[in-house]
Specification:
By secondary structure, the chain is an alpha+beta fold. The chain is built from 18 helices and 20 strands. Strand 4 (about 80-85) and strand 5 (about 90-95) form a beta hairpin. Helix 10 packs antiparallel against helix 12 (about 355-360) and helix 17 (about 465-475) runs antiparallel to helix 18. The longest helix is centred in the last third of the chain and has 18 residues, at about 480-495. The chain is globular, with a radius of gyration of 23 Å. The termini are far apart.
Length: about 525
């Protein structure tokens, strides 16, 4: 089968979708002003927060999910599950009343069953599967956590019972199945597309079991969803959900104030918002980190002394004050202090121009050097203004003779694609955790496996580091796991494939008549429980 360029097909198939206007601020619809366009309509194929926010919780469900109140894993499409004592077999018992979306392009003839679970996971596990290479064969989250080496087999016991057989026990396996990426697709829809030889549409014209179903996408303008009438959970209150794609943060605020949006992403001018009687500003403490990542495959960042020098030359507190307005804390390591695996003994890199100059000279650059920093082109909770952050770093590095060229001319999908290919030299980026297990801060973005998928933007691979992660996943003993993660954090502090900068809060602004919880400490946003009065 041919490999398809997902972005190109997305533009070809969907840019001609026109029809209704964006909608109105009525009791039956919600308009969400989002910061960017999705790269795909299947969370299996991406890791970007912008895409996950747009599609994951709106269109799909997972076998299991994190419960909002306590972050414990609870039932979803699987009503229950059983883990053997050795941790190597997990059996899921599926619900019998789950309907897939009926859309303009697909009418289901049956409810969800075990075949859908097998299709959803075998597609990404088996290179011989007829849908594996449809969007390029990249499933970055699963490939970065070594899913294919962990799962030996997925067995259909009966129509509503599925068993995962693992090669070894893994303490993060269930947490990974509860992430935004582990969605269940329709095997029946896939069969229809295969019969039509339209395999590529599986990731572009989506069919899931989630609270909303896909209606249309106008590239760079809007996404329109309609309520899924037969949703297996409580019926959704909102009939129409529209994502108004507005990359400008001031543009989103203007639309909120002009009643053109109900909710906006990553608001600015917090004081202005709180002054309005009809608006409310909400925040959640996120499991996240912003960082400056070094492409360790490219000079001069193949030299760890250069990476260390840059780390000492950056004034993190000044960035916190200027960019986050105090709504973040300096990152001393990759893990936020709220993680049980956080180690206070790892102090990180402080601000020291003298140490930076000495290390740069030791590395062979006594007169300085020139480097590029790519700035994230969309606002994220972990970095609400990457361009200004880059300018602050540019000024800091001038003090040690380093000239910084800031690259900021790519839109998000191009930026993401070029990063995965390793075109950058250094990049301002970040990570928002998909679940509370500490492994999610390590394996998906810094393991050797994640380097091979391009999700490891530092393109750094250290077998000793990987082994500490592996050892931690072999036990459920929290004390033992914390010891292994402490060793991994010490390696990162010495090798500096990336420099953690900040752990921030995530903000959202909305009209007060929009009720319901949208934000979570990790993962994407969820409109299933939203209503208006």
């Amino acid at each position: 089968m041919k490999q398809f360029n997902l972005l190109g097909l997305l533009l070809l198939l969907l840019s001609g979708c026109y029809g209704e206007d964006k909608g109105s601020l009525s009791a039956n619809s919600v308009i969400y002003c989002a910061e960017g366009s999705p790269e795909s309509f299947n969370p299996q194929t991406v890791t970007s927060g912008t895409t996950i926010d747009a599609i994951s919780y709106q269109l799909y469900d997972r076998l299991i999910s994190f419960q909002t109140k306590d972050n414990e894993i609870g039932p979803s499409l699987a009503k229950s599950w059983h883990v053997t004592r050795d941790g190597k077999m997990i059996t899921f018992y599926l619900r019998k009343d789950v309907s897939f979306h009926q859309t303009d392009y697909f009418t289901p003839t049956r409810s969800l069953n075990a075949d859908d679970v097998l299709f959803s996971f075998n597609r990404l596990l088996d290179p011989g599967h007829n849908f594996h290479f449809v969007s390029g064969g990249k499933y970055p989250f699963f490939q970065s956590v070594g899913f294919s080496s962990l799962v030996d087999d997925i067995e259909k016991i009966n129509d509503y019972t599925v068993r995962f057989k693992l090669s070894r026990a893994d303490s993060s396996f269930l947490a990974n199945l509860a992430t935004d990426f582990a969605v269940i697709l329709s095997a029946e829809y896939a069969g229809q597309l295969a019969a039509e030889d339209n395999h590529q549409k599986i990731d572009l014209l989506p069919v899931g079991t989630g609270p909303y179903k896909f209606k249309e996408y106008r590239v760079g303008s809007l996404i329109r969803y309609y309520r899924h009438e037969n949703y297996w959970r409580d019926q959704v209150a909102i009939e129409q959900l529209v994502y108004d794609i507005t990359p400008s943060k001031t543009g989103r605020l203007t639309k909120l104030l002009a009643n053109e949006c109900d909710v906006i992403a990553y608001p600015v001018a917090h004081e202005k918002i709180t002054e309005h009687a009809n608006l409310t500003l909400e925040a959640v403490t996120s499991f996240n980190v912003s960082y400056l990542g070094f492409n360790t495959q490219k000079p001069p960042f193949d030299n760890k002394l250069v990476r260390q020098a840059i780390a000492y030359a950056i004034n993190k507190q000044a960035i916190i004050d200027a960019i986050y307005f105090g709504h973040a804390e300096v990152a001393k390591s990759l893990l936020p202090a709220s993680s049980w695996a956080h180690d206070r003994s790892i102090a990180g890199h402080g601000f020291s121009i003298s140490k930076a100059k000495a290390l740069l000279a030791q590395a062979g650059y006594p007169d300085g050097l020139t480097m590029d920093i790519w700035a994230l082109p969309v606002q994220r909770a972990y970095n609400p203004n990457a361009l200004t952050t880059a300018k602050l770093i540019q000024a800091d590095l001038q003090q040690i003779g380093v000239t910084v060229n800031i690259v900021s001319n790519y839109e998000w999908s191009t930026f993401s694609r070029l990063l995965a290919r390793g075109e950058h030299q250094a990049v301002l980026l970040g990570w928002s955790a998909d679940h509370p297990d500490p492994d999610n801060f390590f394996t998906p973005i810094l393991s050797c496996a994640s380097m091979n998928t391009g999700n490891n933007r530092a393109f750094w691979c250290d077998p000793t580091f990987d082994n500490f992660l592996y050892q931690s996943l072999q036990t459920t003993n929290t004390r033992e796991r914390k010891k292994h993660y402490a060793q991994a954090l010490r390696i990162l502090s010495e090798e500096v494939p990336l420099l953690p900068i900040a752990h921030s809060r995530r903000y959202q602004a909305r009209h007060k008549n929009v009720q319901g919880e949208l934000l979570h400490p990790f993962g994407g946003i969820d409109f299933s429980g939203v209503s208006k009065n």
